[in-house]
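Bit of a strange request maybe. I'm writing a small parser for structure token strings and I need a real example to test against, not something I typed by hand. Could someone generate the tokens for this chain?
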Amino acid sequence: MSNLLEVKNVSLRHAHKPVLDDVSFIANAGEFIALLGCNGAGKTTLMDIVAGLRKPDSGEVLLDGRELDEWPRNALSQRVAHMPQAVRPDLGYSAEQVVLMGRYPHRESWFDSPEDHALAHAAMERTQSWEFRNRRVHTLSGGERQRVLLAACLVQHADLFLFDEPSIYLDIDQQLRCFALLRDEAASGKACIAVTHDINLALSYCSRLLVLSGQRLVFDLSVDEARGSQEWLQVFSRQLELGTTPHGRPWVWYQ
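Reply from user aminoacidic:
Good idea to test on real output. This should exercise your parser:
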């Protein structure tokens, strides 16, 4: 049986400088993976390549054992959902219309079906964005807009979810809700990969950590393995120390 996602020896250069260098990993249903790394490590580029938006100079990305180029675009969109790091804030659509766009790969006609509307409603309730369904996206705050985009991704009902900094702009309560939602999606049999700079969110909600540094994948470890090691933390800063909260949860402290 093939893996859901297999990234094999992916490399990319830009202006003769390496952006990604020989990156390989596997992801399967039930995993919630945090993709970590300092600025410029190649996280967004890697997510774009996995989403099929960019092609590597070498290596390949397989979905269910088939290269991305072998998938019809509509079929690929039914299997892979991608929430990019930045979306134009001046969209002239209502919040509900944007969420309904996540149903495009599943449509059989030009029009939204009652099922599409029901699924959009449910997704917006989950992200607490239903209350501003009729507002134009450009009138929303950054955090409100992010919750709408998260709902648009969830309503796609894909097998593989790719989130590039999904908790950006969100207040603390919404950050926790966001990562809990993604953990629930993984528990339901999806595979989720999320770029984040919040190590504590990753340790609290994710099952596995991928750490990029120097354009290479330098650590691929389960959260349980990460709890017992300080070495991977040094990638981010020498001022970090891994400890345990009074409730027994792993926590990164700042010296």
